[in-house]
């Protein structure tokens, strides 16, 4: 079995067009969480490589920014076509490298295809406003211009989709892209670059270096973050990383889109459709083995429905299938590594110490000892304290009782992160309160849907310690362009704004 995953990886990489030189003989080991085995050894890029990549991206940007946006959209259309052709192989590689079950690995690639489609349409819709001028014979308007080199830093758990959310928009907006993927998932990044290069070759006359990938750890990310030639850093990962990256970019007056950790919660109200809530909670909390930024981590259940819902949830936790995502129909795959498993155990210990009753959470033996599978844990907590206040990137759901919705919303908002949230209710007043100004303080607030599984059409991101960035749909593209206000005087006079008079002889 262990040999077969390495062999499968090589076979997929070959089919995806990645040269074996790129993933053999290097010093950066890539492990598959499915078995914990090493599947490749890559050559990390150096600080000098990073400097050169930024310089060539800058040169590519200077040519690309003058290409008409709909023509730029053609490149992204071709990227979407290449992704469609490579979907099965890339989806499988995501499963190998990030441990996702097949439907989630494929779903991630589908998300890449969807954002390409979105960006192609967008390439004809980079609209500015025309604004009424207060001066006669004047016209005011807004123009959106390309920004420059966009540095993308991404996390292990969405190893390819996050790049596409950024790159598809950045490219139609006229920018170049330099991508630093997670050091835990470099292979899917190499494969994505090979797919992009095919689209580029078909496009024909795009400048070299328009989108590049740099393999390596935080040091490469730091070099990107420090560069004055990278006006925008889009960084996805932990709040810990964002606390370092955000101030460094701000120090040089760069722009950042920060997509950081979540501590997402749901509220189950007395009128909730409990069957629907059960399924949504199960997927939101256990899906992707709790390793989504939008994973449901806290649940407030009204005391009138607690006994009707929570025992059913505990049963689902006890019976959910856990296994090798490549060879079984399991719904829950592995944690990314031993550190993630240890963090889960530490959080469960802390929860017990704070009076919690833990259901599940134990290690499950699947394959060799080097793989870390765990039964998702549901923890009944007397109150929101200790580990409940933090994101532990593992499948732990803390469940608490509530009796008053205003108090549940207060507790819901009383954590550092502000990414995703949901309420289960059939009561219009409760639903509207939750999505109102006095409701959830998160970037995403759902009604009768779980916290995870967002569509690309909406702007994605969160508030507070989640970083405030927005990516993907809606008008998130504006973050990748610079806005210019133009005032055109077509009169023969020079009236000044606000009636100011400044007549010189
Ligand atoms: P991580 O913070 O450990 O690493 C993320 C990326 O940041 C990696 O590429 C890493 O090399 C880089 N990095 C780390 N330190 C850096 C530094 N000082 N300078 C520059 N780059 C640096 O996160 P992870 O473990 O890969 O991913 C899990 C975390 O990401 C969770 O907290 C999860 O909630 C979050 N996440 C958020 C979103 C979102 O959209 N909000 C999406 C996916 C994951």
TrEMBL record:
Top EC class of this enzyme: oxidoreductase
Coiled-coil annotated residue ranges, if any: none
Sequence ranges assigned to domain Aldehyde dehydrogenase in this UniProt record: 26-485
CDD domains listed in its UniProt record: ALDH_F7_AASADH (cd07130)
Enzyme Commission number(s) from the entry: 1.2.1.3
UniProt GO molecular function: aldehyde dehydrogenase (NAD+) activity
Keywords associated with the record: NAD, Oxidoreductase
Domain of life: Bacteria
Active site, UniProt feature: 259
Keyword NAD: yes
SUBUNIT field: Homotetramer.
Family: Belongs to the aldehyde dehydrogenase family.
Name of the protein in question: aldehyde dehydrogenase (NAD(+))
Organism (species): Paracoccus solventivorans
């Amino acid at each position: 079995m262990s040999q077969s995953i390495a062999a499968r990886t090589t076979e997929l990489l070959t089919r995806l067009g990645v040269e074996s030189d790129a993933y053999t003989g290097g010093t950066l080991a890539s492990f598959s969480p499915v078995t914990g085995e090493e599947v490749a050894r890559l050559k990390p890029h150096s600080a000098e490589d990073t400097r050169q990549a930024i310089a060539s991206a800058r040169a590519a940007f200077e040519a690309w920014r003058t290409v008409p946006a709909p023509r730029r959209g053609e490149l992204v259309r071709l990227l979407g076509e290449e992704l469609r052709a490579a979907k099965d192989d890339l989806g499988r590689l995501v499963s190998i490298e990030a441990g996702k079950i097949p439907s989630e690995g494929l779903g991630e690639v589908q998300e890449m295809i969807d954002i390409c489609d979105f960006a192609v349409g967008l390439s004809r819709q980079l609209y500015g406003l025309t604004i009424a001028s207060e001066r006669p014979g004047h016209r005011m308007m807004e123009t959106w211009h390309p920004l420059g080199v966009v540095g993308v830093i991404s996390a292990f758990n969405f190893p390819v989709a996050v790049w596409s959310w950024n790159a598809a928009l950045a490219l139609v907006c006229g920018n170049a892209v330099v991508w630093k993927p997670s050091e835990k998932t470099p292979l899917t990044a190499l494969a994505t670059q090979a797919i992009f290069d095919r689209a580029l070759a078909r496009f024909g006359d795009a400048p070299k270096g328009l989108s590049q990938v740099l393999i390596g750890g935080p040091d490469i990310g730091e070099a990107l973050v420090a560069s004055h030639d990278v006006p925008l850093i889009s960084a996805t990962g932990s709040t810990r990383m964002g606390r370092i990256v955000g101030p460094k970019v701000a120090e040089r007056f760069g722009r950042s889109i920060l997509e950081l950790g979540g501590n997402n919660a749901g509220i189950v109200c007395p009128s909730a459709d409990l069957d629907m809530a059960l399924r949504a909670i199960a997927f939101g909390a256990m899906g992707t083995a709790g390793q989504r930024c939008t994973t449901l981590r806290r649940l407030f259940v009204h005391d009138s429905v607690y006994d009707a819902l929570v025992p059913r949830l505990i049963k689902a936790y006890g019976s959910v299938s856990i296994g090798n995502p490549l060879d079984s129909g399991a719904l829950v795959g592995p944690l990314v590594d031993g550190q993630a498993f240890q963090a889960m155990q530490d959080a469960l210990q802390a929860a017990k110490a704070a009076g919690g009753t833990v259901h599940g959470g134990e290690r499950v033996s699947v394959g060799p000892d080097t793989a870390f599978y765990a039964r998702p844990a549901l923890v009944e907590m007397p109150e929101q304290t200790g580990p409940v206040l933090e994101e532990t990137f593992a499948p732990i759901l803390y469940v608490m009782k509530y009796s008053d919705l205003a108090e549940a919303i207060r507790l819901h908002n009383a954590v550092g992160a502000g990414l995703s949230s949901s309420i289960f209710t059939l009561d219009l007043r409760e639903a509207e309160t939750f999505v109102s100004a006095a409701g959830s303080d998160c970037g995403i607030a759902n009604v009768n849907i779980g916290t995870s599984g967002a569509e690309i059409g909406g702007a994605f991101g969160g508030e507070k310690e989640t970083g405030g960035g927005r990516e993907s749909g809606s008008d998130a593209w504006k973050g990748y362009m610079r806005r210019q206000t133009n005032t055109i005087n077509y009169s023969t006079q020079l009236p000044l704004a606000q009636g100011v008079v400044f007549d010189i002889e």
